[in-house]
């Protein structure tokens, strides 16, 4: 049952929402426009702000559902594994699905929204994660407002996640989970980091219409 849940979480995370939305609304392959990513930011720029917000919400749900509804379904009476560990594994599976989707030759998005969804879902079971997620959101907003770079906000917020876990004295498994999320986000933003260093990264309201 657990293995099936892990596969289901991966497949849910793999749904390329941004790609589907861009195809449906504009008839384009979003990967051929803007940053080449099918995440909410690129859809926001290329398709429309409303489409980008819709993609953001749906990508968040891709991380939230596995650690809540799917995990609750698996964690029945007599289940022998650590329930929190199961939720963490399902969350990571969904994020891996988004980052390396089976539906697009294992190429995917940056994973920020799906990561946020997983953290939100986990906060329902581990209340202290609510303030931690809120602090990360605050860092993200502050950086984006000051610089205009969504990618930089995502990178810095992800780097702060393990720091906040330490500040709030969270157990090792949550700290390890946060480090894994941080590494995923930074690695998936490697092209953005190169553009930032070359002063070529676009700000959020720099439209790139297809």
3D structure, described in words:
The chain is mostly helical and 210 residues long. It has one domain (2-197). It contains ten helices and no strands. It has helices spanning 2-14, 17-26, 40-46, 49-74, 83-99, 112-123, 129-147, 150-167, 172-188, 190-197. The protein starts with a helix and ends in a 13-residue tail after the last helix. The model has no long low-confidence stretch (mean pLDDT 93).
Short description:
70% of the residues lie in helices and 0% in strands. By secondary structure, the protein is mainly α.
What is the helix content?
over 70%
Work out the radius of gyration.
17 Å
- Average of per-residue pLDDT values: 93
Helix/strand structural class: mainly alpha
Low-confidence stretches: none
Total helix count? 10
Oligomer state of the chains in this structure: single chain
Total count of domains: 1
State the order of secondary-structure elements, H for helix, E for strand: HHHHHHHHHH
The total strand number stands at: 0
Global geometry: globular
What's the N-to-C terminus distance?
44 Å
Task: Bin the strand percentage.
Answer: under 5%
Largest sheet: none
Chart the SSEs and their pairings.
Elements: H1 2-14, H2 17-26, H3 40-46, H4 49-74, H5 83-99, H6 112-123, H7 129-147, H8 150-167, H9 172-188, H10 190-197
Helix pairs in contact: 1-4, 1-5, 2-4, 3-4, 4-5, 4-6, 5-6, 5-9, 7-8, 8-9
